[in-house]
Amino acid sequence: MDASEPGPLRIGVVGAGFMGRQHIDFIRAASGASLAAIADPVAPADVGHGTPVYADATAMLHAEQLDAVVIAGPNAMHVETAVECLEAGVAVLLEKPVATDYAESRRLVAAVARLDGRLLVGHHRRHHPSVARARAAILDGELGEIVAVSGLWSARKEDGYFTETPWHRRPGGGVMLINAVHDLDLLRHLCGEVAEIQAMRSSHARGLDVEDTVSLSLRFETGAIGSLLASDAGVSPWGWDQATEETLAFPYLPDGVAYRIVGTRGALSVPNLAKYTYDPAVAADWHSPLSRTYLPVAPRGSFQAQLDHFVDVARGTAEPLVPAEDAARTLALVEAAARSADLRATIDVEQFRASIDASEPA
Ligand SMILES: NC(=O)c1ccc[n+]([C@@H]2O[C@H](COP(=O)([O-])OP(=O)(O)OC[C@H]3O[C@@H](n4cnc5c(N)ncnc54)[C@H](O)[C@@H]3O)[C@@H](O)[C@H]2O)c1
User: Fold this and answer.
1) Does the structural domain 9-125+304-322 have CATH classification 3.20.20.70?
2) Span from the CA of 225 to the centroid of ligand 1 (angstroms)
3) Whole-prediction pTM value?
4) Per-residue three-class SS string for the chain
């Protein structure tokens, strides 16, 4: 290694549960990062492998010289722990959701600005190479003007998911905040801000308090409109998790589709990146032959790409792809959808955020 090159980024991980263990494995495998410490009050005995383990983030920050921290503990500790880390001068990769609600997220957004903090929120799907390519196709006008988008995520969760984990049965543990939040974040990333949202919500399939199925209608600020259907009660091969090899916990369907984006000059499905256009040499209307080409993209896992990006953010050589304020807007959209379902009304998303911004900070 060149003597002028910085050594691996020293990272501490807060929360060594389902997600934290994955971060630990990714850090251990990365060349630009090293696992310096773990903080978890009930860390499993086998998780350290010689890495120091602390009871909480405060003890870890006092004892270790860290460059960065990954926070993968319960949602309720996200903001408090992230602010503590930023105040200690370390960079933060914060798992989604950025906060428990939009009102609380404003405290983190303010702290990032006050401390000039380096913070990336873990909406990892944005780092998938097919998402970057689809976004470039949209922004470069390869599809013409975007008219509409449709998204679908459906998979049947096992009954034990609800019977064994009480909070999964209660509001906040349903398909909206656990699953559809990822799709809404990607739709915002691909198609821009949502101006209006209408939501219909159902608990019919499982009969629990929490919703199992949602249908959302979106109007984007660009003028495009869209829809998203999400269910954790319905069997289906359709959704991001089945269309990518991100997690082995889902059956993989090659050439699968999570989103269909239609423009005035072409259509694109994501993440398989099949692009449909008329032959420009012949009349281009609905009776013309359509050709399908696949946009080329180098395969790469989102989580590895996210970690590489985080190393750059921590070193100050890149701006975060998902800053706190951006992730807060995704959270506000989820809350606006819930409000819409409650009121059976269309919600103006900017007005909804402004009403919370005008209230006292959480
Ligand atoms: N990006 C994704 O796709 C994705 C997927 C799953 C979970 N998540 C997020 O990751 C986070 C963790 O979820 P999970 O499923 O791993 O939960 P989990 O319950 O499996 O793990 C949480 C861990 O945090 C530990 N913990 C509790 N209080 C702590 C404290 N004060 N300090 C340090 N550690 C503490 C617990 O002991 C536990 O080991 C959540 O915010 C969740 O939303 C993200």
Assistant:
1) no
2) 35
3) 0.94
4) CCCCCCCCEEEEEECCCHHHHHHHHHHHHCCCEEEEEEECCCCCCCCCCCCCEECCHHHHHHHCCCCEEEECCCHHHHHHHHHHHHHCCCEEEECCCCCCCHHHHHHHHHHHHHHCCCEEECCHHHHCHHHHHHHHHHHCCCCCCEEEEEEEEECCCCCHHHHCCHHHHCCCCCHHHHHHHHHHHHHHHHHCCEEEEEEEEECCCCCCCCCCEEEEEEEECCCCEEEEEEECCCCCCCCHHHHCCCCCCCCCCCCCEEEEEEECCCEEEEECCEEEEECCCCCCCCCCCEEEEECCCCCCCHHHHHHHHHHHHHHCCCCCCCCHHHHHHHHHHHHHHHHHHHHCCCEEHHHHHHHHHCCCCC
The answer, yes or no, to whether any atom of ligand 1 lies below 6 A from the CB of 85, is: no
What CATH superfamily classification does 129-299 receive? Dihydrodipicolinate Reductase; domain 2 (3.30.360.10)
Q: State residue 181's pLDDT score.
A: 94
Q: Is the CB of 188 under 6 A from ligand 1?
A: no
In ligand 1, the atom with minimum distance to the C-alpha of 73 is 24
**Model confidence over 177-203: pLDDT tens digits?**
999 999 999 999 999 999 999 999 999
pLDDT digits (tens, 9 = 90+) for 136-150: 999 999 999 999 999
Quick check: CB of 312 below 6 Å from ligand 1?
Answer: no
